[in-house]
Write a structure and sequence with these properties.
single chain; 296 residues; alpha/beta; Rossmann fold; Alpha-Beta Plaits; five-stranded parallel β-sheet; 10 helices; 12 strands; elongated
């Protein structure tokens, strides 16, 4: 994919030279003829690199750069181009965060090298950002089941406290007699059973509406936006798990089941209070004979 270079200069002659030269190097070129136009065009152009003239009549290149820096997501490398060869001007441009500062008349071979280096640097930073985002995402995911983990639960709790998210109900889900599965078939089969429960939760619950966690061991947690669907969701989970059997068909098999506690009290102040209520309801399901739903 061809890289996009945004030229900002009020001199048509300079623009013509840069356009012809950089087009010959297989770059896509976009142009603004003054600072205000550049500020307005930046989002539409979405450049990979900007060549920015310093001395323009309406807004200087420094002022244009400052306005771009006010944008939270601005990360485009800037090369200042200027006839001002004074050290003070160069330092000012670099202190703003520019990638480089070239003086006019500029050597085109040097410009070609600077452009190439700047684009390579941007690509490396973009890849690093993606890697960091992937690592951050992995930090929130349970490695065994692919569901969210307890670390991400704290993130959601903070989002609720800050008013960014709103949820009305919690399901606390616990496997019945999970120790028997591990003791009978071994921990590898036990782990696969947990994965299968995770897959059922993926299938039954919409990830766009609900947030699902492996809470710990053989316990799972679901946070729902609408308390009106909580009981139906719990019933669907129990029905789906009831179809599971662990073990080889020609040998001994164990029927899998879960118990569920539901909390949909709308007057809970925090997510942790709702979880505590759902946990108490789950204890009621366990004491009542397992394989059932208790609502608090």
């Amino acid at each position: 994919m061809r890289k996009r270079i945004f030229i900002v200069d009020d001199e048509p002659h300079n623009i013509h030279i840069l356009r012809v030269f950089l087009t010959s190097l297989n770059y896509d070129i976009y142009v603004a003829e003054n600072g205000r136009q550049a500020v307005e065009m930046i989002d539409a152009v979405a450049p990979d690199l900007i060549l920015l003239d310093v001395m323009m009549p309406d807004l200087s290149g420094f002022e244009v750069f400052k306005r771009w820096l006010d944008k939270d997501d601005f990360d485009v490398p800037i090369i200042f181009l200027s006839a001002n060869v004074q050290k003070k001007a160069m330092l000012e441009g670099l202190q703003l965060g520019a990638f480089d500062y070239l003086t006019k008349p500029y050597d085109l071979d040097l410009l070609e090298m600077k452009v190439s280096i700047a684009l390579q640097q941007k690509m490396k930073l973009s890849n690093l950002k993606k890697d960091n985002e992937q690592l951050a995402e992995l930090a929130y995911v349970d490695a065994l089941t692919g569901l969210y983990n307890r670390t991400y639960l704290e993130v959601v709790a903070q989002q609720i406290n800050d008013g960014y998210k709103h949820y009305e109900s919690v399901l606390m889900i616990d496997m019945d007699n999970f120790k028997t599965i591990n003791d009978t078939f071994g921990h590898m089969i036990g782990d696969q059973t947990l994965r299968d429960i995770g897959n059922i939760l993926f299938q039954v619950l919409s990830p766009y509406v609900h947030v699902t966690f492996r809470y710990g061991g053989d316990e799972f947690l679901v946070i729902l936006q609408d308390s009106g669907v909580a009981l139906a969701a719990a019933e669907a989970i129990i029905a789906a798990v009831d179809q599971m059997q662990v073990g080889h068909p020609s040998q001994k098999q164990i029927q899998v089941s879960v118990s569920i506690g539901v909390s949909h009290s709308l007057d809970c102040n925090t997510l942790h209070q709702m979880i505590s209520q759902a946990d108490s309801a789950l204890l009621g399901s366990k004491r009542g004979g397992r394989h059932q739903i208790t609502v608090k």
